[in-house]
Amino acid sequence: MRVSVITVSDSSHAGTRADESGPKLVELVDKSLKVNATVNEGSPTVVPDEVAAIRDALLENCKNSDVIITTGGTGFSKRDVTPEATLEVVERRCSGLEIAMHTGSLQKTPMAALSRAIVGIRGSTLIVNMPGSVKAVKECWEILEPVLNHAINLLKGTDDGSEHQRMKE
Question: Model-level pTM?
């Protein structure tokens, strides 16, 4: 599985604030014992909070990724436009994953209710929006990680049912 990470942040893009959540996502994917994944070279890519920049980064990364995880730009601020850009790119929504991430996060903080994160599919690429904090990235990864192999196998048409059976046991 090939994974790309995109950080959406005006200040990180401008170099005035260090990107912490993107590198944390890369670390979580690299260290995962549940997901057989390789993070694509150049991740995390950092883009500003602009629909066109986010959309273009998503489309470019769809060419060589099974999964794209964004971090940042999912809140209520006028500059938080990651969900809008993602909706321009995805062909099918994955509401179950959206609900799972929101529900899991709400168990830890009421602030999770302020996330507008989207999960969807373009072609055979899964696109997942996560909030921009390191804490939220960890929480959302814990929810995504156990189902990711099965999800990607289904998208690629390589699912033999064994992963689903293993999860039921």
Answer: 0.93
Give the other-Cβ count within 10 Å of 154's Cβ. 16
Superfamily of structural domain 2-168: MoaB/Mog-like domain (3.40.980.10)
The span from the CA of 103 to the CA of 97, in Å, is: 10
**Helix, coil or strand: residue 7:** strand
Measured CA to CA, the distance from residue 53 to residue 33 in angstroms comes to: 33
- Look at the block and give the residue holding tokens 């994917």: 29
Whether omega before 23 lies within 30 degrees of 0, making that bond cis, reads no
In this prediction, residue 158 has a pLDDT band, given cuts at 50, 70 and 90, of: confident
Q: Dihedral, CA atoms, 98, 100, 106, 108, nearest 10 degrees? A: -130
Strands 119-122 and 125-130: antiparallel
The mean pLDDT value for 16-24 works out to 98
Coil, strand or helix: which one is 39? strand
- Residue ranges of domains in the chain: 2-168
